[in-house]
């Protein structure tokens, strides 16, 4: 097959988690390596790739709407392809496969989470032969880290340490679309981290559906603490990780927040519910007392740590008493950020068959109450940094005001400060600067750069 991607253009749209964002960077790297040029707008693209998430129903609806809308968008002027190629990958591609081409007849390519490397070939086949080209494998042959990459930012890198999940929480589709957990060798992770530092990365985010269980399949026991040591030794300025399952968070890992200077004081620790009855129904394999004990240990190791979490409201059978236990846990812990979700039924998961007669308006009212508590807690947590000086890794201009720079504190707070007169955004992007915080809001800090 000759290379039919030369002089084409492509656009990637990403839904969902950080793992999808990493996969999208690999998609960009592969297509660019074959001579296709990335563009920002779908209208300018000969090839459109959707990297999808199916954790919640809203993502399905959004994808179907966006793909359907492409039927009426003409090809760009000067394009030498006969038709725009539309591809869907990620978790919805893995779950639905051939079925997607029946729902969306103008869809050309479907690929799954286990065969990212097949995308360039499938796209070329679609360009040359027309028709539908679907390939969804049951398991991964290689880690996608062996593929070319085009990182979105020079100063930041995603580094997957595991793929797949063995937890089978009853509400979650991920183990069915990402497969069983598989860990990368520690040496490969350390080498990749060193490579990213040499190429200018200041922040590395370790990825896995459950980073805490890293290595159980390779070494017979979890070795995530060793991963943190190895990546810290690369000399990278900042280390983050996601996601961390409470049942596998060990004292050894917690200690790293006290001993590794480049491990950022921020931990995402999904609780999902404060009710032990609901946690059992979710198959989370910890109770609220154990979760609270973990929070105490983490704060003992790193008193200034910023905690974030995920919470599901309206899980089948949740009562007002169950909800109140969640509500009280949120008020007690004082999270910097809480990702709140109304339960989304996913076909094929055990929870999809659990009966529930709770009226939607009751669930919505509980959700709204929780959001109020979350906002109050986040505002309160941010007040601790009012008046302080925080090091900020600058990400670029604020989306709302081009004259403001925006970046992240060690605690992963968004920080805004004015762009100095006469200076360019690009000159500041990727730099770490000290900012004097003059204002602490619910979802961000604001201040002035310290000269």
TrEMBL record:
Say which enzyme class the record assigns: transferase
Question: Which PROSITE patterns does the UniProt entry name for this protein?
Answer: MTTASE_N, MTTASE_RADICAL, RADICAL_SAM, TRAM
Concerning InterPro entries, the annotation shows: Elp3/MiaA/NifB-like_rSAM, Methylthiotransferase, Methylthiotransferase_CS, Methylthiotransferase_N, Methylthiotransferase_N_sf, MiaB_methiolase, rSAM, rSAM_horseshoe
Q: Name one Pfam family in it.
A: TRAM
Q: Per UniProt, what is one GO molecular function of this protein?
A: 4 iron, 4 sulfur cluster binding
One cellular component GO annotation, for this chain's record? cytosol
Top-rank taxon: Bacteria
Q: Which residues form the TRAM domain?
A: 383-451
Give the required cofactors: [4Fe-4S] cluster
- Its EC number(s): 2.8.4.3
What keywords sit in the KW lines?
A: 4Fe-4S, Cytoplasm, Iron, Iron-sulfur, Metal-binding, S-adenosyl-L-methionine, Transferase, tRNA processing
Q: Which residues form the MTTase N-terminal domain?
A: 8-128
Which CDD domains does this entry report, sorted A to Z? Radical_SAM
Cellular compartment(s): Cytoplasm
Give a yes or no for keyword Methyltransferase in this entry. Answer: no
Give residues annotated as binding [4Fe-4S] cluster 1.
17, 53, 91
Annotated Radical SAM core domain ranges read: 151-381
The note on cofactor binding and number reads: Binds 2 [4Fe-4S] clusters. One cluster is coordinated with 3 cysteines and an exchangeable S-adenosyl-L-methionine.
Residues involved in [4Fe-4S] cluster 2 binding: 165, 169, 172
What is known about its subunit structure?
A: Monomer.
Q: What does this protein do?
A: Catalyzes the methylthiolation of N6-(dimethylallyl)adenosine (i(6)A), leading to the formation of 2-methylthio-N6-(dimethylallyl)adenosine (ms(2)i(6)A) at position 37 in tRNAs that read codons beginning with uridine.
What protein family does this chain belong to?
Answer: Belongs to the methylthiotransferase family. MiaB subfamily.
What the entry lists under HAMAP family is as follows: tRNA_metthiotr_MiaB
This protein is called tRNA-2-methylthio-N(6)-dimethylallyladenosine synthase
Name of the gene this protein is made from:
miaB
């Amino acid at each position: 097959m000759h290379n039919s991607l030369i002089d084409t253009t492509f656009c990637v749209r990403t839904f969902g988690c950080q793992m999808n964002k990493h996969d999208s960077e690999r998609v960009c790297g592969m297509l660019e390596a074959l001579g296709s040029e990335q563009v920002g707008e779908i209208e300018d693209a000969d090839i459109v790739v959707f990297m999808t998430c199916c954790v919640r129903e809203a993502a399905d609806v959004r994808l179907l709407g966006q793909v359907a809308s492409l039927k009426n968008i003409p090809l760009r002027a000067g394009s030498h392809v006969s038709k725009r190629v539309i591809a869907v990958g990620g978790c919805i591609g893995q779950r639905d496969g051939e079925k997607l081409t029946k729902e969306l007849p103008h869809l050309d390519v479907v690929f799954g989470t286990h065969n990212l490397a097949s995308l360039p070939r499938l796209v070329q086949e679609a360009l040359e032969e027309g028709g539908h080209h679907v390939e969804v494998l049951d398991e991964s042959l290689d880690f996608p880290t062996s593929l070319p990459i085009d990182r979105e930012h020079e100063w930041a890198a995603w580094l997957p340490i595991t793929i797949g999940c063995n937890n089978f929480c009853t509400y979650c589709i991920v183990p069915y679309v990402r497969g069983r957990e598989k860990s990368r060798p520690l040496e490969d992770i350390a080498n990749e981290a060193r490579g990213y530092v040499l190429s200018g990365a200041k922040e590395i985010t370790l990825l896995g559906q459950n980073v805490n269980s890293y290595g159980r399949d390779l070494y017979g026991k979890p070795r995530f603490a060793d991963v943190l040591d190895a990546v810290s030794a690369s000399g990278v300025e900042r280390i983050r990780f996601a996601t961390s399952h409470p049942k596998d968070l060990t004292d050894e890992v917690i200690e790293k927040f006290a001993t590794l200077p480049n491990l950022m004081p921020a931990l995402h620790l999904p609780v999902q519910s404060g009710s032990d009855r609901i946690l059992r129904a979710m198959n989370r394999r910890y109770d609220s007392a154990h979760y609270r004990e973990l929070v105490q240990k983490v704060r003992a190791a790193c008193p200034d740590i910023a905690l974030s979490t995920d919470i599901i409201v309206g899980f089948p059978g949740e009562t007002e008493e169950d909800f109140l236990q969640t509500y009280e846990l949120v008020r007690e812990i004082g999270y910097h950020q809480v990702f709140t979700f109304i339960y989304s039924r996913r076909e094929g998961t055990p929870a999809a068959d659990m009966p529930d007669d709770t009226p939607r308006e009751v669930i919505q009212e509980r959700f709204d109450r929780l959001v109020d508590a979350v906002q109050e807690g986040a505002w309160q947590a941010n007040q601790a940094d009012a008046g302080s000086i925080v090091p900020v890794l600058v990400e670029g201009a604020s989306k709302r005001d081009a004259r403001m720079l925006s970046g992240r504190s060690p605690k992963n707070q968004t920080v805004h400060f004015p762009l100095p007169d006469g200076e360019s955004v690009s000159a500041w992007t990727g730099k770490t600067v000290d900012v004097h915080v003059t204002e602490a809001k619910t979802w961000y800090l604001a201040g002035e750069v310290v000269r």
